[in-house]
Design a protein that fits this description.
Blueprint (H helix, E strand, L loop, with lengths): L15 E9 L4 H12 L3 E3 L6 E7 L4 H4 L10 E9 L6 H15 L5 E7 L4 H4 L5 E4 L8 H24 L27 H21 L3 H17 L3 H19 L20 H6 L36 H15 L6 H18 L2 H12 L8 H17 L3 H15 L9 H11 L21 H17 L3 H14 L6 H17 L7 E2 L5 E2 L28 H4 L3 H4 L6 H14 L1
Parallel strand pairs: 1-3, 1-4, 4-5, 5-6
Antiparallel strand pairs: 2-3, 7-8
C-alpha cells in the first residue's frame, strides 16, 4: 500500500522522469544541498537530434513502497539515482563504492541508470575514466556537474525510448504480461490466463502503460491515442482502478497541452529553458510549443496513424478544459472503490483543484478539496498532518476561499504544538496563527477598529487572539503577551462578557507586573511590526455627575464694581462692565 502522499503533485508531473538524489555516508548537509540545488536546476532537457523535451523531477527522499506503484503510473517510478559522497582517502574507496551498490539495490529493478559523485578523492583512482562515477577535488571545484547530469539524462532517455518502442510494438503470438499494483498480485493467482476477459485486461493495462511512456518521452499526441484506446479496453472489462489511471492519463496529457505554463502555481516554472543536450535542438525548440512534441519517425503501426502531418499543430484526441474535469471526477470515483488507492485518489483531487484554480471554477474546486479532506489514509505523523493541513489551506487560498484557508492553517498551527510532539514548535505555531489573521478579517493595528462597523466574527477573532497570547507565553515573550492582551481588551471590549473582561484584565495585570506595556512598536523576527495599543475605550464612563469646585476655584460676582465709575479703575479701554453701566445710564435718560 502506498502510504506517503505528495501534496505538491501537479498534472504535468506525469510527463516527468523521477530521479532520486541521496548522500552516501556522512556528507555535510550544506554541501549536499548546494550540489542538489545545482543538479535539480537541470530539470528540462532537449533531446539530441530530436524535437522532443524531457522533464525531470528530482527528490532527495522517496519512500521505496511508493516506487512499487511505478507500473501503475510511470512518473512514480524511480528511474535515476544520483548519489553524493565524501571520500578523501584511497583506502575508503572500496567501501564507498560498495555502499553505492547497496543504495542502487534499494530501488531495484526500476532504475534505468545511476551515478556516483565523489568529492575529495584525488590520485590514481580518480584519474580512471568511468561513466557511472565522477570525481571532484572539492565541493567548490566541480564545474562539470551540470554537464554530467545532462549526459546522465540522455542515458535515461535511451533506456526510456527502447522500453517505449519495445512495449508499443505489437508482437503477434507473444503474451502480453499483466501489469499489477502491489495489493492486486494475490488476487490474480489461479486466474484463467487464456480467457478473452483476461487478455483484454492485459492489453488495456499495457496500452495505458505505453501512454505513460509516450508522455514521458515527449510524445504528447501519441500518449493521447494510447490513453483513449486503454479507456475503451479497460471499460469493456470493468477494470476500474486501471480505467481511473487511463482517464487520469488523458487528463494529464490534455492539461499539459492546454496549460503550457503549468498548474503548480509558479507561472512558467515548468517551461523555463533548462539544460540542452545540443545547441541545435535548443534553437529548434520553443518552450511551450506543443506542436513540435510529436516525433513522426518513432510512430509504429499499432493503431496509430503514421501520417502525422494532419496532427501537427492541433491536439487530436485532446480533452476540452471542461472534459478534463469530468474525467477527473470519473477517475476519482473509480479510485474511491479501493481503500488501498487512497493516496492516488487524494493526489488526483489535488491535481484537479490546481487545474480548476486556473480555470477560475472555485465552487467545483472546493468540492474536490472537500473530498480530499475526508480521504482516510493510514495513521499520519504530526509532521504529515501539519503538511496536509498547510497544503489544504494553500489550495483554499488559491481558489479564493480565504476563511476556509485560515481554518485549515489554524489547525496546522495547533498541530505544531500537539501534546504528542516531544518538543512542541511554538514559534512555528505562532507564525502560522499570524498567517490566519487576514482570513478572519483581523488586523493587529488598533486604528483599523476605530472606524465604522466591526468586520468578521468577533467570537472567532477573540479565540485567535487568546491563542496568540498563549503561544507568545510558551515562546517566553511576555512583551508580546501584553501587546496581544491589550489589543484584545481595546478592540473586543464590546463583545466581552463581564467575566471575560475580569479574566483578561487579571491576565494583563499579572503579565505587566513582569513586563510593563510600552508605546513602542514591537518588531517580530519575520519583519512584521505590531503597533502600540492606546486604551481609548477605557475607563468606561457609565454616568456623569457635576460636582462643586473647591472654594478657591469657584467664580464670584463683582457687585461692588457695578456701583462705581469703573472707567477710572479699569485698565481696559472697553470692557463688558463699562458697556453694561453705560447702557443702564442711557436707559435712565430715556
Amino acid at each position: 500500500k502506498m502510504s506517503v502522499p505528495d501534496y505538491m503533485q501537479c498534472a504535468e508531473d506525469h510527463q516527468t522522469l523521477l530521479v532520486v538524489v541521496q548522500p552516501i555516508g556522512i556528507v555535510p548537509e550544506e554541501s549536499f544541498f548546494r550540489i542538489y540545488k545545482r543538479i535539480s536546476a537541470v530539470s528540462q532537457v532537449n533531446v539530441r537530434d530530436s524535437q522532443r523535451v524531457l522533464y525531470i523531477r528530482y527528490r532527495h527522499h522517496y519512500p521505496p513502497e511508493n516506487n512499487e506503484w511505478g507500473d501503475f503510473q510511470t512518473h512514480r517510478k524511480v528511474v535515476g539515482l544520483i548519489t553524493i559522497t565524501d571520500c578523501s582517502s584511497a583506502k575508503d574507496w572500496p567501501q564507498t563504492f560498495e555502499k553505492f551498490h547497496l543504495q542502487k539495490e534499494m530501488y531495484g529493478s526500476t532504475l534505468y541508470d545511476s551515478r556516483l559523485f565523489v568529492f575529495g578523492l584525488q590520485g590514481e583512482i580518480a584519474e580512471q575514466p568511468r561513466t557511472d562515477v565522477a570525481f571532484y577535488p572539492s565541493y567548490d571545484e566541480c564545474e562539470t556537474v551540470e554537464k554530467r547530469i545532462e549526459d546522465f539524462i540522455e542515458s535515461l532517455f535511451i533506456v526510456l525510448e527502447s522500453k517505449r518502442l519495445d512495449r508499443a510494438t505489437d508482437k503477434s503470438g507473444d503474451k502480453i504480461p499483466l501489469l499489477c499494483v502491489p495489493f492486486e498480485k494475490k488476487d490474480f493467482v489461479g486466474l484463467d490466463t487464456d480467457s478473452r476477459h483476461y487478455k483484454k485486461r492485459c492489453q488495456g493495462r499495457m496500452r495505458k502503460h505505453v501512454g505513460d511512456l509516450c508522455l514521458q518521452a515527449g510524445m504528447l499526441q501519441d500518449s493521447l491515442v494510447h490513453y483513449h484506446m486503454a479507456v475503451e479496453l479497460l471499460r469493456s472489462v470493468n477494470d476500474f482502478l486501471w480505467l481511473g489511471a487511463a482517464l487520469e492519463g488523458l487528463c494529464s496529457a490534455s492539461v499539459i497541452y492546454h496549460y503550457p505554463g503549468g498548474t503548480g502555481g509558479k507561472v512558467g516554472s515548468r517551461r523555463a529553458q533548462g539544460g540542452s543536450l545540443s545547441a541545435e535542438a535548443g534553437n529548434r525548440h520553443r518552450p511551450g510549443a506543443q506542436e513540435v512534441l510529436i516525433d513522426p519517425g518513432a510512430l509504429t503501426s499499432n493503431g496509430i496513424n503514421a501520417d502525422t502531418s494532419s496532427e501537427i499543430g492541433r491536439a487530436k484526441n485532446c480533452l476540452s478544459p471542461e472534459d478534463i474535469i469530468d474525467k477527473y471526477k470519473e477517475a476519482i470515483s473509480y479510485y474511491g472503490k479501493y481503500k488501498n488507492a487512497g493516496v492516488i485518489e487524494l493526489e488526483a483531487c489535488v491535481k484537479a483543484v490546481r487545474v480548476l484554480a486556473i480555470q477560475k471554477r472555485s465552487m467545483e474546486a472546493s468540492e474536490f478539496l472537500q473530498n480530499a479532506v475526508y480521504i482516510n489514509l493510514r495513521q499520519l505523523s504530526e509532521e504529515e498532518k501539519i503538511q496536509r493541513y498547510s497544503i489544504l489551506s494553500e489550495l483554499y487560498e488559491r481558489i479564493g476561499f480565504h476563511r476556509k484557508s485560515a481554518f485549515f492553517k489554524r489547525i496546522a498551527a495547533m498541530q505544531c504544538a500537539a501534546p504528542s510532539i516531544p518538543e512542541p514548535g511554538w514559534r512555528a505555531c505562532y507564525k502560522l496563527l499570524l498567517e490566519t489573521l487576514p482570513g478572519y478579517s483581523l488586523s493587529l493595528d488598533p486604528k483599523d477598529f476605530s472606524k465604522g462597523t466591526h468586520r468578521g466574527w468577533a467570537a472567532v477573532q477573540m479565540r485567535l487572539l487568546h491563542e496568540l497570547v498563549y503561544a507568545s507565553r510558551r515562546m517566553g515573550n511576555p512583551a508580546l503577551c501584553v501587546r496581544h492582551l491589550s489589543f484584545l481588551l481595546q478592540t473586543m471590549l464590546d463583545f466581552l462578557s463581564d467575566q471575560e473582561k475580569k479574566d483578561v484584565t487579571q491576565s494583563l495585570e499579572s503579565y505587566t507586573a513582569k513586563c510593563p506595556g510600552t508605546m513602542e512598536f514591537i518588531t517580530l523576527p519575520d519583519g512584521l511590526k505590531l503597533p502600540p495599543v492606546p486604551f481609548t475605550k477605557l475607563p468606561i464612563v457609565r454616568s456623569v455627575k457635576l460636582l462643586n469646585l473647591p472654594t478657591s476655584l469657584r467664580p464670584h460676582k463683582m457687585k461692588s464694581l457695578l456701583g462705581q465709575n469703573v472707567s477710572t479703575k479699569s485698565p481696559f479701554i472697553y470692557s463688558p462692565i463699562i458697556a453694561h453701566s453705560r447702557g443702564e445710564e442711557r436707559n435712565k435718560k430715556i
